[in-house]
Batch of 3 targets.
Target 1
Amino acid sequence: MKKRKRICIDINSILPLVSRGYLFGVGRTVYELVTALDKIKEDLPFDIVLYSQNTKNISSKNLGFSFESKHLSLPYRDSINRILSFFAVREHFTKADLWHCPHNSDWVGKLSKTIFTLHDMIMYACLDEYPPEIYKKAQATVLHNMLSCKAIIACSQSTKNDITKYLGVDPDKIHVIYWGINHILFKPLHDKERLKKELNQKFGLDKPYFFSVSCGYGRKNTVELIKAYNLFAEQNPTNDLVLIWNNYGSDIKELIQKNDRIHILKSIGDEDLMKLYNGATATYYPSKYEGFGLPILESMACGTPVVTCKNSSLVEIGSDMAIYSKSEDAEGLRESMENIENNRQDLQDIRSRGIAHASQFTWEKCAKETIKIYKKYLYE
């Protein structure tokens, strides 16, 4: 019998789910992709092995996946991964015919047998996000990896365009596969009275509210959103502002201390996130740059309108179902709040069209498209 080919997926980005209980953007997408692949495991013409690396012996076994698990009890650090890649230790250890690194970039032993998922080009498009020395190091590794690897998966056409623009990679080597939505989780809740009680009891939210997730400085533009709401609050509006933001500084504390109608929540799990989407009048996602924009579709899937900006992938993902702010600054965002508050837009129509739009993005579709890429490069 002919030996089956083996594909190894590095799942280190999803292991924090075991210790922390929730995941951020890239980790969430990797988890959902592997979950979708696991559901169709019996139909795959090749074997998948999941690779983990840490000293706590946390592996895919802790996450309930049925794929074969390979674990190295070593710290998952840049310096160690560099040494491992020099000797192709992980590739030999897993006996992988094709290696998939789904978390942007890493040190890899056999680039000619590696597929990378590159989620965005922040290290080139947003040079003011991190200290120059960090970007310089990241840029050098990413450039080398993307030029030498077997193939690249991009989560949007916008990201593909940026990879070609900044790195000079042949566009034929880059394959666009959209992320999906967990529609079992992110869906409309119809018992609004019960939802209101739950949100009030758990988070103290007793008024309608605008909602923003994935908050942060720089490109996330949350500071302008807060300034916009402070301006809007002068009109004594119906809606509060609710932000999910784990790490913010004293400058933000000063901004929100001026207004007791701004609520900041931390460490929110997916179930509560779904309820917060459902309870919102509108979700604000005023980012200046995104490789995809997952909160846009999550909010739409819950039947909540989304206000975002016309840049990067946001128009591609939001299509004509999102509400676009006239500008990315406080005045443009304030005006959108006023329009929604005063019912100047048909929100019911936007809600129904948003649900239909989000339904087109599924992890099953993402998994099947990923399998096509595996087949293309595994057997050529």
Note: The chain is about 40% helix and 15% strand.
Target 2
Amino acid sequence: MHDTELVTTIATLMQSRQTILPKRLVAPGPDAEQLQQILEAAASAPDHGQLLPWRFVLVPQTARAELATAFGTALLERDAQATAEQVQQAQEKAYRSPCLLLVVVDARRGDPDIDLFERIVSTGCAVQNLLLMATALGLGSALTSGKALKSAALRTLFGLQQDEHALCFVSLGTVQSSKPGRLRPRAQDYVTTLAVPLDTPASA
């Protein structure tokens, strides 16, 4: 027998999660206790072989200037003709949201035979658990990515090893403003049933 009230609560939590752009996330961010709850929620993710192929790097306010420099350098790595204004816009992204985490997945940690895709799936589950806990605590959240994640400047700043990949940033904070929740797809929009052809009768 399932707990109907618990099921309803969990369904409501999942349906209420929405992306809040980092520029709309303001202080206060999660306090120390809340952040611990959020990070511990990630541990419930499925993890083939118990590799722990993912990790999170907290970017405190004291390190935002270095991150801003890395963002600016990353832009210039891609486009040497970028204007000073464009570089400044790239740098400003480092200061958005009061709490910022980098998500890193290791392609070879533990058992190298466990495929990178499995590791990324595990990482995605860990991130979703984290986002849901943040939502449960009344906080807004967002995932952001971009070409800077693959840059030498960012990899150097975070000390990423050869087989480590920066997947995305997680932003957390108090919601300053939000848009109406978007219409979610229905199950029939993304679920099909495998059709197995009937056996062909043997010839007489």
Note: Strands lie at 25-26, 54-58, 99-106, 140-144, 164-175.
Target 3
Amino acid sequence: MRSNLTRRIFFQTAAGAAAVRGSAAQQAPAEMVHEPVYPYTRRSTVAVIPGKERRKMVYDSLAAIERDILPALKRKKYVLIKPNNVSTTNQLAATHADTLRGIIDFVAERSKLPIVIAESSAGDTPVGYENFGYVKLPKEYATRQISLVDLNTEARYEVMPLLTPDLHVQPVRLAARLLDPDAFVICAAILKTHNTVIATLSVKNMTLGAPLRSAPKETPRWNDKRKYHGGVRQTHYNMYLTAQKLRPFWGATVIDGFEGMEGNGPASGTPVESRIAIASADYIAADRVAVEAMSINPAWLGYLNYCAQVGLGQYDLAKIDVLGAKLADVKKPYRMHRDIERQMQWLGPLEEIPPKLG
């Protein structure tokens, strides 16, 4: 029965994907591929704030859910903001400095905790900090303790096992700061399509921001991020494993949809003026709402379905309380990546040699 359901969803969604490569009007049924192992029974709250000013929208989205944030924030020793700098040169692909300003404004009004902006970019992290104007933030908030950290150069990590494309075990080094019980971790994500896992939002930003690579001048060179890019099913599963490891340390997330990215994301797509900010203390619920806002079938995102199956958050839209705008009023169809048909193969039967993407 389960196999038939998986196969039916795969062929329906794959046919739908082939038909909508030029648009995102997906018609495939939004079904879970498998039943939950550990059902997430609690309701979650997600704020969806429309607007015309990015910084204010981000601030207002966090303010709308502050009752879900403040109790945990008071127990921490510092705030860690994790931006998305998949590119260190393309602003559309990276977290905007005004997104960070909106987060800092919110935190600064409610806490005196130090704030650390920390990223492990696939490129040169400090170059991105310079190009995107992050280096200005410590001076702008002179009365606050704000610092910028390159997680690759800091080189503090914990090791966990992943699967190789051949389904063998391999180690990966995850940034220790993202597993620090003293840190209140705020994810600063973006609405973007992706070249391997359909869309990149909160969970993707955290799970692929956690693995480290060698510092720019270090030899020999190594890059643990590459260990995630293998078979189409292996990538989703490894992201789920990493999310499970990181989940106890997540505080809140903001997904900046002021200007999202469609098409060949996460670095080479084109802009979409969604003009919304999404925030929640539940990263899975935030991503579920974001997927809806992008008009993407939620059954397509394997890593989020896996996270939902083991109770890492709420993925059932009927059990998510949306504050602010109505989803129907802010939905926009996002054009999928040109490799969407190959990406969808994670839903089908396992091939002997899984296709490699990304």
Note: The first strand starts at residue 44 and ends at 50.
